[in-house]
């Protein structure tokens, strides 16, 4: 059986109709690939359409503010993708006269573009024989060939890339690469693969050994940390509040939030009052109430945020405050956006 032929045949019959598949424009392909990293197609599709509508070309994105890009990205998570994307757009415009490099070697030099994205753009847009290896491809190859090397180990990454290059169809690389990724997403799915009607099941090692749900193997992640977040929601008589922009290299860089302090354990009203007195000495009279008695748990890949929102009503007008109505203009983490909608 010819592995790549079966993948191409399956793709021709089963591929989903998606907007970026009707073009070879590297801007569109790049945008879709960045968005679909660690994001399901169903979730990423509305964002893709929103971005294409507001930024039809890479020049449009490059000329936009980072704040606007982050606002449109709000809800997709892993915001470094959006910041890198904006930086890449500027790089393409300023250094490449608005045209993406047409080779893998040129593409991988762009900010935020790694092996997978460079391979995808090079093959889909420019027919360059470069294999793509994403989560779906890892799964298909690991199961079909019965590979036990962890996909997130150095040895595993090298082995799968080498194997992907050996089995790819170089003559129809564009459809083959899209086909094997689609095959992994739909046919050889993570939890409920359709092995009974799989065109390559006859030679699948994992199926023969009853190990489909064991493969691929992944090294255990680092221990997830628990953090206690306390947001201070100041409100004056004019319905103005205080908003701050996050800085540094931590989570949600450059996004906006309400004043925040972390506590070692679940905070109480006395700790909040002390925090306000120490950091906001110009606010003399205020009343504190707790919006949510039970902490809201916001799960990130490496930490779980146990969050309380403290409402602090003040008598005098707040200095350097913003109106509550204007909050929707600011890019904020989903955790904050959800609170604003429910408050």
TrEMBL record:
InterPro entries: A/G_AdeGlyc_MutY, DNA_glycosylase, HhH-GPD_domain, HhH_base_excis_C, HhH_motif, MIG/MutY, MutY_C, NUDIX_hydrolase-like_dom_sf
Keyword field contains Zinc-finger: no
Domain HhH-GPD: 35-186
Catalytic activities: Hydrolyzes free adenine bases from 7,8-dihydro-8-oxoguanine:adenine mismatched double-stranded DNA, leaving an apurinic site
EC number(s) on file: 3.2.2.31
Names of the cofactor(s): [4Fe-4S] cluster
CDD domains, alphabetized: ENDO3c (cd00056), NUDIX_DNA_Glycosylase_C-MutY (cd03431)
Cofactor note: Binds 1 [4Fe-4S] cluster.
Pfam annotation, one family: HhH-GPD
Annotated keywords: 4Fe-4S, DNA damage, DNA repair, Glycosidase, Hydrolase, Iron, Iron-sulfur, Metal-binding
PANTHER family per record: ADENINE DNA GLYCOSYLASE
Entry function: Adenine glycosylase active on G-A mispairs. MutY also corrects error-prone DNA synthesis past GO lesions which are due to the oxidatively damaged form of guanine: 7,8-dihydro-8-oxoguanine (8-oxo-dGTP).
Family membership: Belongs to the Nth/MutY family.
UniProt-listed NCBIfam families: mutY (TIGR01084)
Protein name (record): Adenine DNA glycosylase
Protein source organism: Croceitalea vernalis
Species lineage: Bacteria, Pseudomonadati, Bacteroidota, Flavobacteriia, Flavobacteriales
Gene coding for it: mutY
């Amino acid at each position: 059986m010819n592995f790549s032929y079966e993948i191409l045949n399956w793709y021709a019959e089963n591929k989903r109709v998606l907007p970026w598949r009707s073009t070879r424009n590297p801007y569109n392909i790049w945008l879709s690939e960045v968005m679909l990293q660690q994001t399901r197609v169903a979730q990423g599709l509305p964002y893709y359409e929103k971005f294409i509508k507001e930024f039809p070309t890479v020049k449009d994105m490059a000329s936009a503010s980072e704040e606007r890009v982050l606002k449109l990205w709000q809800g997709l998570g892993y915001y470094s993708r959006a910041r890198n994307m904006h930086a890449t757009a500027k790089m393409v415009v300023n250094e490449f006269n608005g045209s993406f490099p047409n080779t893998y070697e040129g593409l991988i030099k762009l900010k935020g573009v790694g092996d997978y994205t460079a391979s995808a753009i090079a093959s889909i847009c420019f027919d360059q024989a470069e294999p793509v290896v994403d989560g779906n491809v890892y799964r298909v190859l690991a199961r079909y060939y019965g590979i036990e090397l962890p996909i997130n180990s150095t040895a595993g990454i090298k082995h799968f890339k080498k194997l992907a290059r050996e089995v790819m169809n170089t003559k129809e690389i564009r459809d083959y690469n899209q086909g094997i990724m689609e095959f992994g997403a739909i046919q050889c799915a993570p939890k409920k693969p359709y092995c009974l009607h799989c065109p390559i099941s006859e030679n699948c090692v994992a199926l023969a050994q009853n190990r489909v749900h064991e493969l691929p193997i992944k090294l255990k992640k680092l221990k997830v940390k628990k953090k206690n977040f306390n947001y201070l929601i100041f409100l004056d008589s004019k319905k103005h509040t205080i908003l701050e922009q996050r800085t540094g290299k931590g989570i949600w860089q450059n996004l906006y939030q309400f004043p925040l302090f972390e506590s070692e354990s679940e905070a109480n009203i006395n700790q909040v009052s002390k925090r306000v007195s120490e950091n906001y000495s110009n606010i003399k009279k205020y009343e504190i109430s707790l919006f949510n008695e039970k902490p809201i748990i916001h799960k990130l890949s490496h930490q779980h945020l146990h969050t309380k929102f403290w409402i602090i009503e003040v008598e005098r007008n707040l200095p350097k405050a913003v109106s509550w109505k204007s909050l929707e203009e600011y890019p904020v983490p989903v955790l904050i956006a959800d609170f604003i909608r429910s408050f």
